[in-house]
Amino acid sequence: ELIEATRGKKLLMYCTGGVRCERLSQLARLVLEKKCPKEEGPAEGVLDEVIGSSSSDAGVDAEIYQLSGGIHAYLEQFPE
Questions:
Q1: What is the pLDDT of residue 59?
Q2: Which pTM was predicted?
Q3: Count of Cβ atoms closer than 10 Å to residue 7 Cβ
Q4: R_g over Cα of the chain
Q5: Percent of the chain residues topping a pLDDT of 70
Q6: Cα 60 to the chain's mean position, in Å?
Q7: Residue 14, Cα to own-chain centre: how many angstroms?
Q8: Number of domains in the chain
C-alpha cells in the first residue's frame, strides 16, 4: 500500500546522513522512479547497485533534492 501511495509523488525526508538514512533514501528513490514492481519491494542487493547513481540516468522521472550540508547546515543558516 505504501509503495502505491507514494509512487510518482514528491517525498521530503529529513535525514542525518547515517547508513539507515542512506539506505532508506535509495529505497525511496527506487519507488519514486517506478523501478520497483507494484507487488514487491526491491530485490535483495538492489540498493547497493543504485547507490551513487545520478539523477541524469535514463528513465529517471522522480524529483529528488538534497540539502547541501544536510539538515543541520540548513537549520544553522535558517534558525527560525
A1: 47
A2: 0.43
A3: 14
A4: 14
A5: 51
A6: 12
A7: 11
A8: 1
> 79 is written with which cell numbers?
534558525
What nine digits make up the cell of 50?
543504485
In angstroms, the Cα distances linking 51 to 9, 46, 63, 75 are: 21, 9, 16, 26
Residue 25 and residue 44: Cα distance in Å, rounded? 16
Active site residues: 15
For 27, the domain range is 2-77
pLDDT digits (tens, 9 = 90+) for 29-68: 777 776 655 555 555 554 444 444 444 444 445 566 677 7
Cell readout for 32 is 519514486
Q: In 10 A of CB 33, how many CB atoms?
A: 19
User: What percent of the chain has a predicted confidence (pLDDT) above 90?
Assistant: 0
Residue found under cell 526491491: 42
